[in-house]
Protein backbone atom coordinates (compact mmCIF):
# COMPACT_ATOMS: atom_id res chain seq x y z
CA UNK A 1 0.00 0.00 0.00
CA UNK A 2 2.73 2.44 1.05
CA UNK A 3 4.80 1.46 -1.99
CA UNK A 4 1.84 2.18 -4.18
CA UNK A 5 1.51 5.60 -2.63
CA UNK A 6 5.28 6.14 -2.98
CA UNK A 7 5.13 5.24 -6.64
CA UNK A 8 2.22 7.59 -7.23
CA UNK A 9 4.08 10.38 -5.49
CA UNK A 10 7.17 9.71 -7.61
CA UNK A 11 5.21 9.75 -10.88
CA UNK A 12 3.49 12.95 -9.82
CA UNK A 13 6.81 14.53 -8.89
CA UNK A 14 8.34 13.54 -12.24
CA UNK A 15 5.36 14.89 -14.18
CA UNK A 16 5.53 18.10 -12.17
CA UNK A 17 9.25 18.53 -12.92
CA UNK A 18 8.67 17.81 -16.62
CA UNK A 19 5.90 20.38 -16.65
CA UNK A 20 7.94 23.08 -14.96
CA UNK A 21 10.90 22.40 -17.32
CA UNK A 22 8.62 22.85 -20.31
CA UNK A 23 7.28 26.11 -18.86
CA UNK A 24 10.79 27.36 -18.15
CA UNK A 25 11.87 26.53 -21.72
CA UNK A 26 8.84 28.32 -23.15
CA UNK A 27 9.57 31.35 -20.98
CA UNK A 28 13.20 31.35 -22.16
CA UNK A 29 12.06 31.27 -25.81
CA UNK A 30 9.64 34.17 -25.22
CA UNK A 31 12.09 36.28 -23.27
CA UNK A 32 14.04 37.71 -26.27
CA UNK A 33 10.77 38.57 -28.04
CA UNK A 34 9.54 40.40 -24.95
CA UNK A 35 12.87 42.17 -24.56
CA UNK A 36 12.70 43.52 -28.11
CA UNK A 37 10.29 46.27 -27.17
CA UNK A 38 6.77 47.10 -26.19
CA UNK A 39 5.23 46.95 -29.68
CA UNK A 40 3.55 43.55 -30.13
CA UNK A 41 3.90 41.93 -33.58
CA UNK A 42 0.21 42.39 -34.43
CA UNK A 43 0.07 46.03 -33.37
CA UNK A 44 -1.74 48.42 -35.64
CA UNK A 45 -2.25 52.17 -35.74
CA UNK A 46 -5.26 53.79 -34.16
CA UNK A 47 -6.21 57.40 -33.52
CA UNK A 48 -8.12 58.13 -30.34
CA UNK A 49 -9.81 61.44 -29.67
CA UNK A 50 -9.69 62.12 -25.97
CA UNK A 51 -10.84 65.30 -24.24
CA UNK A 52 -10.76 67.18 -27.54
CA UNK A 53 -7.26 66.07 -28.57
CA UNK A 54 -6.25 63.42 -31.12
CA UNK A 55 -3.68 60.80 -30.15
CA UNK A 56 -2.05 58.63 -32.83
CA UNK A 57 -1.09 55.33 -31.20
CA UNK A 58 0.14 51.89 -32.19
CA UNK A 59 -1.58 49.24 -30.12
CA UNK A 60 -2.13 45.54 -29.85
CA UNK A 61 -5.72 45.13 -31.12
CA UNK A 62 -6.64 43.46 -27.82
CA UNK A 63 -5.79 46.57 -25.78
CA UNK A 64 -8.69 47.88 -23.74
CA UNK A 65 -9.51 51.57 -23.79
CA UNK A 66 -8.69 51.60 -20.07
CA UNK A 67 -5.17 50.26 -20.63
CA UNK A 68 -4.62 52.61 -23.57
CA UNK A 69 -5.54 55.55 -21.33
CA UNK A 70 -3.53 54.49 -18.31
CA UNK A 71 -0.57 52.57 -19.71
CA UNK A 72 0.01 54.20 -23.09
CA UNK A 73 -1.19 57.76 -22.58
CA UNK A 74 -0.36 58.00 -18.85
CA UNK A 75 -3.84 59.37 -18.14
CA UNK A 76 -4.23 57.71 -14.77
CA UNK A 77 -7.34 59.60 -13.64
CA UNK A 78 -9.45 56.72 -14.92
CA UNK A 79 -9.10 53.89 -12.41
CA UNK A 80 -8.85 50.13 -12.81
CA UNK A 81 -10.86 48.34 -10.14
CA UNK A 82 -12.11 44.91 -11.18
CA UNK A 83 -11.13 44.99 -14.90
CA UNK A 84 -14.29 42.90 -15.46
CA UNK A 85 -17.07 45.45 -15.90
CA UNK A 86 -18.37 45.08 -12.37
CA UNK A 87 -17.25 48.10 -10.34
CA UNK A 88 -17.57 51.18 -12.57
CA UNK A 89 -14.19 52.61 -11.50
CA UNK A 90 -13.13 52.83 -15.15
CA UNK A 91 -16.21 54.73 -16.41
CA UNK A 92 -15.57 57.24 -19.21
CA UNK A 93 -17.90 58.91 -21.69
CA UNK A 94 -17.95 57.75 -25.30
CA UNK A 95 -19.85 60.29 -27.41
CA UNK A 96 -21.49 61.44 -24.19
CA UNK A 97 -22.67 58.00 -23.06
CA UNK A 98 -21.01 56.21 -20.19
CA UNK A 99 -19.05 53.04 -20.89
CA UNK A 100 -16.80 50.77 -18.87
CA UNK A 101 -13.44 51.41 -20.47
CA UNK A 102 -12.17 48.02 -19.24
CA UNK A 103 -14.75 46.34 -21.50
CA UNK A 104 -14.20 48.66 -24.48
CA UNK A 105 -11.51 47.87 -27.01
CA UNK A 106 -9.36 50.90 -27.82
CA UNK A 107 -9.75 50.06 -31.53
CA UNK A 108 -13.53 50.22 -31.14
CA UNK A 109 -13.26 53.72 -29.68
CA UNK A 110 -11.68 55.11 -32.85
CA UNK A 111 -13.92 57.73 -34.43
CA UNK A 112 -15.70 58.62 -31.20
CA UNK A 113 -15.11 61.40 -28.70
CA UNK A 114 -13.88 60.08 -25.39
CA UNK A 115 -14.16 62.18 -22.25
CA UNK A 116 -12.25 61.21 -19.13
CA UNK A 117 -12.11 62.77 -15.68
CA UNK A 118 -9.14 64.86 -16.89
CA UNK A 119 -11.41 66.50 -19.45
CA UNK A 120 -14.29 67.55 -17.18
CA UNK A 121 -12.95 70.69 -15.52
CA UNK A 122 -13.54 73.99 -17.26
CA UNK A 123 -9.82 74.55 -17.71
CA UNK A 124 -6.92 72.13 -17.88
CA UNK A 125 -5.37 73.22 -14.59
CA UNK A 126 -8.21 73.90 -12.17
CA UNK A 127 -7.29 76.05 -9.19
CA UNK A 128 -10.63 76.76 -7.56
CA UNK A 129 -14.00 75.07 -7.14
CA UNK A 130 -15.34 77.39 -9.84
CA UNK A 131 -12.95 75.79 -12.35
CA UNK A 132 -14.49 72.35 -11.76
CA UNK A 133 -17.50 70.89 -13.51
CA UNK A 134 -20.76 71.09 -11.50
CA UNK A 135 -20.53 67.40 -10.57
CA UNK A 136 -16.87 67.64 -9.53
CA UNK A 137 -17.66 70.70 -7.39
CA UNK A 138 -20.65 68.94 -5.80
CA UNK A 139 -18.55 65.89 -4.87
CA UNK A 140 -16.03 68.20 -3.24
CA UNK A 141 -18.60 70.28 -1.38
CA UNK A 142 -20.62 67.26 -0.20
CA UNK A 143 -17.66 65.03 0.75
CA UNK A 144 -18.63 62.43 -1.84
CA UNK A 145 -15.47 60.41 -1.38
CA UNK A 146 -13.20 58.88 1.23
CA UNK A 147 -10.17 57.19 -0.34
CA UNK A 148 -11.19 58.68 -3.68
CA UNK A 149 -10.41 55.59 -5.75
CA UNK A 150 -13.93 55.13 -7.09
CA UNK A 151 -14.47 58.89 -7.39
CA UNK A 152 -13.46 59.52 -11.04
CA UNK A 153 -15.80 56.73 -12.17
CA UNK A 154 -18.58 57.99 -9.90
CA UNK A 155 -18.19 61.53 -11.25
CA UNK A 156 -18.18 60.39 -14.89
CA UNK A 157 -21.24 58.26 -14.24
CA UNK A 158 -23.04 61.07 -12.41
CA UNK A 159 -22.26 63.44 -15.28
CA UNK A 160 -23.92 61.01 -17.68
CA UNK A 161 -26.86 60.52 -15.28
CA UNK A 162 -27.66 64.24 -15.47
CA UNK A 163 -27.60 64.13 -19.28
CA UNK A 164 -29.71 60.96 -19.40
CA UNK A 165 -32.25 62.46 -17.01
CA UNK A 166 -32.38 65.74 -18.93
CA UNK A 167 -33.18 63.76 -22.08
CA UNK A 168 -36.05 62.01 -20.25
CA UNK A 169 -34.41 58.58 -20.31
CA UNK A 170 -36.07 56.16 -17.89
CA UNK A 171 -34.75 53.75 -15.29
CA UNK A 172 -36.34 50.83 -13.50
CA UNK A 173 -37.30 53.20 -10.68
CA UNK A 174 -39.11 55.55 -13.10
CA UNK A 175 -41.52 52.71 -13.87
CA UNK A 176 -41.82 51.46 -10.30
CA UNK A 177 -42.55 54.96 -8.95
CA UNK A 178 -45.11 55.74 -11.62
CA UNK A 179 -43.03 58.53 -13.16
CA UNK A 180 -42.38 56.99 -16.54
CA UNK A 181 -43.76 60.11 -18.27
CA UNK A 182 -41.39 62.55 -16.55
CA UNK A 183 -38.99 60.93 -14.06
CA UNK A 184 -37.90 63.03 -11.10
CA UNK A 185 -34.31 62.69 -10.03
CA UNK A 186 -35.29 61.41 -6.57
CA UNK A 187 -32.75 59.75 -4.29
CA UNK A 188 -34.08 56.36 -5.41
CA UNK A 189 -33.59 57.35 -9.04
CA UNK A 190 -30.05 58.50 -8.27
CA UNK A 191 -29.25 55.25 -6.44
CA UNK A 192 -30.63 53.14 -9.28
CA UNK A 193 -28.88 55.12 -12.01
CA UNK A 194 -25.59 55.08 -10.08
CA UNK A 195 -25.85 51.40 -9.14
CA UNK A 196 -23.13 50.35 -11.60
CA UNK A 197 -20.56 52.25 -9.54
CA UNK A 198 -19.31 50.58 -6.40
CA UNK A 199 -17.65 52.45 -3.53
CA UNK A 200 -15.72 50.22 -1.18
CA UNK A 201 -15.53 53.03 1.39
CA UNK A 202 -19.32 53.27 1.53
CA UNK A 203 -19.49 56.99 0.74
CA UNK A 204 -22.91 56.44 -0.82
CA UNK A 205 -25.00 58.92 1.26
CA UNK A 206 -22.65 61.78 0.34
CA UNK A 207 -22.44 60.64 -3.29
CA UNK A 208 -26.25 60.73 -3.52
CA UNK A 209 -26.23 64.19 -1.89
CA UNK A 210 -23.61 65.38 -4.38
CA UNK A 211 -25.54 64.11 -7.40
CA UNK A 212 -28.77 65.63 -6.01
CA UNK A 213 -27.01 68.99 -5.56
CA UNK A 214 -25.43 68.87 -9.02
CA UNK A 215 -28.85 68.08 -10.52
CA UNK A 216 -30.37 71.09 -8.76
CA UNK A 217 -27.51 73.27 -9.98
CA UNK A 218 -27.84 71.97 -13.50
CA UNK A 219 -31.55 72.67 -13.62
CA UNK A 220 -31.37 76.04 -11.82
S1 LIG B 1 -12.48 48.31 -13.78
FE1 LIG B 1 -13.98 48.48 -15.33
S2 LIG B 1 -15.83 48.03 -14.30
FE2 LIG B 1 -14.31 47.65 -12.80
S1 LIG C 1 -14.22 56.64 -1.82
FE1 LIG C 1 -13.02 54.87 -1.51
S2 LIG C 1 -13.83 53.45 -2.90
FE2 LIG C 1 -15.19 55.10 -3.00
Provide mean pLDDT, rounded.
Answer: 86
- Gyration radius, rounded: 24 Å
Distance between the termini: 83 Å
| Fraction of residues in β-strands | 5-15%
Shape: globular
Heterogens: FE2/S2 (inorganic) cluster
Helix content: 40-55%
Give a description of the structure:
Helix 3 (134-141) crosses helix 7 (204-219). The chain has helices at residues 2-35, 65-72, 134-141, 151-166, 172-176, 187-193, 204-219, and strands at 44-50, 53-59, 91-94, 97-100, 113-115. With 220 residues, the protein is of the alpha+beta class. The N and C termini lie far apart (83 Å). It binds FE2/S2 (inorganic) cluster (2 copies).
Question: In summary, what is this structure?
Answer:
The chain has 220 residues and is α+β, with helices and mostly antiparallel strands. It is 43% helix and 11% strand.
Ordered list of secondary-structure elements with their pairings:
Blueprint: H1 2-35, E1 44-50, E2 53-59, H2 65-72, E3 91-94, E4 97-100, E5 113-115, H3 134-141, H4 151-166, H5 172-176, H6 187-193, H7 204-219
Helix pairs in contact: 3-7
Tag the structure with descriptive keywords.
220 residues; alpha+beta; 5-stranded mixed beta sheet; 7 helices; disordered N terminus; binds FE2/S2 (inorganic) cluster
